[in-house]
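For the sake of transparency, this paper describes our internal protein records without simplification. An entry from our holdings is shown next, in its original layout:
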Amino acid sequence: MPQITVDYSSQLDESFDFHGFAGALHPLIAETVTTKIAACKTRFREVAGTVVADSPDGSAIVHIEIALLAGRTPEIKAQLTESVLELLAGHIRPTDGLTLHLSAETRDLDPSYRKS
C-alpha cells in the first residue's frame, strides 16, 4: 500500500519519463497520506489502443489510479489527486500533433485487500 497503476497510450513511450515520475511520485504520496516511500508500488501499463471522443488520431491518455487503505479524508484524497496531476505534467514532453488527456483518481482499497 499504496497501490499505484498508470495506464498510458503507447504513443507516449518516448516522451513519458516513467522512472522520473515514479521517483517523484512516491515521496509525494508518502508525505501527503503519511506512509512510507518503501510502501509505494507503481506499475505502468501501456495501452495500445485509445480513442478520445470522435478523434481516433492525435490524442493520448494517461490515467493514474492510487489505491489506499481506508481512513483518508475526501479532502486529502482530492489534494493528492491534484498534486499527482501537476507532477505528471512535468514528466511528459509535448509531442507535436498529440493532445494529452491526463486524469487521476485516489480511492480506498477494498476491505478484502491483503498482501504478503
Observations:
- Helices lie at 18-33, 74-89.
- The mean pLDDT is 92.
